[in-house]
């Protein structure tokens, strides 16, 4: 499961409803929540945030938790 999937599951958000509100296909929403190698586009993240009533920045911070810059030597 992806960080997006964890976020939606923790808040009991229906993926079919997200797909309907965003215009994304149900298979795409499922891929973004299940497949860790799926690439989440910024437009998709923005639409999902609007559909579930959270600030896009909040969702971005949750989804990207643990992402770090490469240390310079």
Automatic annotation (TrEMBL):
<feature type="domain" description="HTH cro/C1-type">
    <location>
        <begin position="6"/>
        <end position="59"/>
    </location>
</feature>
<protein>
    <submittedName>
        <fullName>DNA-binding transcriptional regulator, XRE family</fullName>
    </submittedName>
</protein>
<dbReference type="GO" id="GO:0003677">
    <property type="term" value="F:DNA binding"/>
</dbReference>
<dbReference type="InterPro" id="IPR001387">
    <property type="entry name" value="Cro/C1-type_HTH"/>
</dbReference>
<keyword id="KW-0238">DNA-binding</keyword>
<dbReference type="InterPro" id="IPR010982">
    <property type="entry name" value="Lambda_DNA-bd_dom_sf"/>
</dbReference>
<dbReference type="Pfam" id="PF13443">
    <property type="entry name" value="HTH_26"/>
</dbReference>
